[in-house]
Design brief:
Elements (H helix, E strand, L loop, with lengths): L4 E5 L11 H15 L3 E7 L2 H6 L5 E10 L2 E12 L2 E7 L1 H4 L8 H18 L10 E5 L6 H9 L9 E6 L10 H8 L12 E2 L2 E2 L1 H8 L2 E4 L2 H6 L10 H6 L4 E3 L27 H14 L10 E8 L5 H13 L3 E8 L1 H10 L7 E4 L4 H10 L2 E4 L9 H7 L3 E5 L2 H6 L13 E3 L4 H17 L1 H12 L5 H15 L11
Parallel strand pairs: 1-2, 1-6, 2-5, 6-7, 7-10, 10-11, 12-13, 12-15, 13-14, 15-16, 16-17
Antiparallel strand pairs: 3-4, 4-5, 8-9
Helix pairs in contact: 1-18, 10-13, 11-16, 14-17
The structure holds adenosine-5'-diphosphate (ADP).
The site of adenosine-5'-diphosphate has 16 residues, from strand 12, strand 13, helix 13 and helix 14.
């Protein structure tokens, strides 16, 4: 069987352009699929910073004029290769010649209409690549399946291409007025209906992707179930329930090279699962000194590294933080975000300065030192599509306390005091006192049951967080669309 050809379409791809987790996934997954024998390629916008930074590596392929409603726009195609993956870039100065990846909401709608139409125009002969699978990510690529259906298939183009939509964040859907989208996408009326692109009377790009893609994935099995309910569904739960037969949840992996406690250059002492005790203790001591906490090897040290937004359960933490400190815990928070949470945390930082350290900044080095130096990692999220921090923490022997939602539920298995099984602690309700009592329970095991704690640390450090597992599952989803049982490295 010949190698499957996959084209990823994304507004963000690490290392070229990153705002969030989407970039990490589309940065690593194609490279992993290539290692598993696929021909995986990626197409993204040529933002100004990429044009500047990679000027000497980019090679020009072709340009054309693209019809976008009444406009006729230049669309250039550039390419470069990195780690065995071919990356294509769509060029247009007016749309992508900016420093920020995202601009204002209304302009972004137009920018990504252009992008999606330009991708489809470039696919095939201009790219010299006709994929078997077109893998679209989030709302910025959500209209591609319907554009393919409306503009290409009726004319005999790309008839064998299957489409996959991955939802990384259901909250952002790409919604705008009918007239504007009808103009920008040139869609015939049969697509502009409640059964097609419209949701609550207006075009919704993510909904369009859900309806027209051949398969849908999201970033954890539990989140795939949760988004079928009203609470987590962001208004699309009904549509998702209708199409749940094509929905699969696949966990993200983490970058094992960047987050490796045995080689990490950001931490004061390296360690591994077989022999972590002394050097992890050295990391804890150094972290307590760095942040002005009492240097106390026995005090449980709890860390939280996060965007400060309501999704992350900051309200639960601030409600019981005083009681946690009263119990003798030390707490470190590193994050930026909503000014409301930044101020709330700042105002608490003077409470017990030798026990509490609030750091309102983005600091990758400090993040690594917190992952390595803490005993416990807090993640009381209200919802969490996948979550990477809990996996990173476990790799550094830092035991997570999480709320049982989304990817947290799929990666953190609560400690069972009767069997000794588990790799962390969890609670089920959005309730500050459940967070407090679970933290107290974890600290009790930490303080008084060292052997049990050691098992928890090792279970986390020995966990498998590699992308290989995820890529194999994506391959199975792709294969399904062709009635094939595709497995890594089973291609000629
Ligand atoms: P999300 O993608 O919802 O923000 P994740 O847990 O999936 O949450 O990933 C967050 C990533 O960003 C982690 O790698 C975490 O270490 C990092 N991070 C978040 N806030 C900061 C910060 N203030 N400084 C350094 N790294 C941060």
């Amino acid at each position: 069987m010949s190698a499957p050809k996959i084209l990823f379409v994304s507004s963000e791809v690490a290392p070229f352009a990153k705002v969030g987790g989407l970039a990490d996934v589309v940065g690593v997954l194609p490279k992993t699929l290539v290692k598993q024998g696929c021909d995986a390629r990626v197409v993204m916008p040529l933002y100004r910073k990429i044009k500047q930074k990679y000027a000497d590596q980019l090679s020009f392929k072709r340009w054309t004029m693209l019809k976008l409603g009444w406009r006729s726009m230049y669309s250039g195609l550039f390419t470069l290769e990195q780690d065995g993956v071919t990356f294509y870039f769509i060029d247009n100065e007016y749309y992508f010649g900016h420093d920020a990846i995202y601009q204002d909401y209304s302009f972004d709608i137009e920018r990504f209409c252009f992008f999606q139409r330009a991708v489809l125009e470039a696919m095939g002969d201009p790219m010299e690549f006709e994929p078997d699978i077109l893998h679209c990510n989030d709302w910025q690529a959500g209209m591609i399946p319907v554009l393919l259906d409306a503009h290409y298939r009726p004319h005999g183009y790309h008839n064998n291409v299957k489409t996959v939509l991955t939802i990384h964040n259901l909250k952002y859907q790409g919604i705008h007025g009918i007239e504007r989208i009808a103009d920008l996408c040139d869609l015939p009326p049969q697509y502009m209906s409640a059964y097609g692109v419209l949701k609550d009377g207006v075009p919704n790009f993510l909904k369009a992707g859900i309806v027209y893609a051949d398969a849908i994935t999201t970033v954890s099995p539990t989140y795939a179930q949760e988004i079928l309910t009203g609470y987590y569904g962001e208004g699309l739960d009904g549509v998702l329930r209708n199409y749940s037969y094509k929905l699969t949840g696949i966990l993200n992996g983490i970058n094992l090279d960047e987050y490796d406690p045995s080689t990490d250059p950001h931490i004061p002492a390296n360690f591994s699962a077989d022999d972590y005790q002394d050097n992890k203790a050295a990391c804890k001591k150094a972290l307590q000194e760095e942040l002005g906490l009492e240097v106390n090897a026995g005090a449980p040290l709890l860390g939280m590294i996060t965007r400060l937004v309501d999704q992350k359960g900051i309200d639960l933490l601030t409600r019981v933080l005083d009681e946690m400190l009263y119990d003798g815990m030390q707490v470190i928070v590193l994050g930026t975000g909503d000014p409301f949470y930044e101020d709330a945390l700042r105002s608490m930082s003077s409470h017990r300065p030798n026990q509490l350290s609030i750091n309102i900044k983005f600091d990758n080095g400090l993040a690594h030192r917190i992952y390595a130096g803490c005993d416990i990692f807090l993640m009381p999220s209200l919802f969490e599509p996948c979550g990477l921090s809990q996996m990173i923490a476990m790799r550094y022997g830092t035991v997570p306390i999480v709320r049982e939602t989304g990817g947290l539920k799929d990666t953190v298995f609560p400690y069972n005091q009767f069997t000794g099984e588990g790799n962390g602690f969890s609670f089920s309700n959005i309730n500050a006192h459940e967070l407090l009592f679970t933290s107290k329970y974890a600290c009790d095991v930490y303080r008084h049951h060292k052997d049990e704690w050691d098992k928890l640390v090792k279970a986390g450090m020995n966990g498998n967080y590699s992308w290989d597992l995820s890529a194999a599952q994506y391959l199975a989803v792709y294969g399904n669309l062709f009635g094939k049982d595709w497995k890594p490295n089973s291609f000629e």
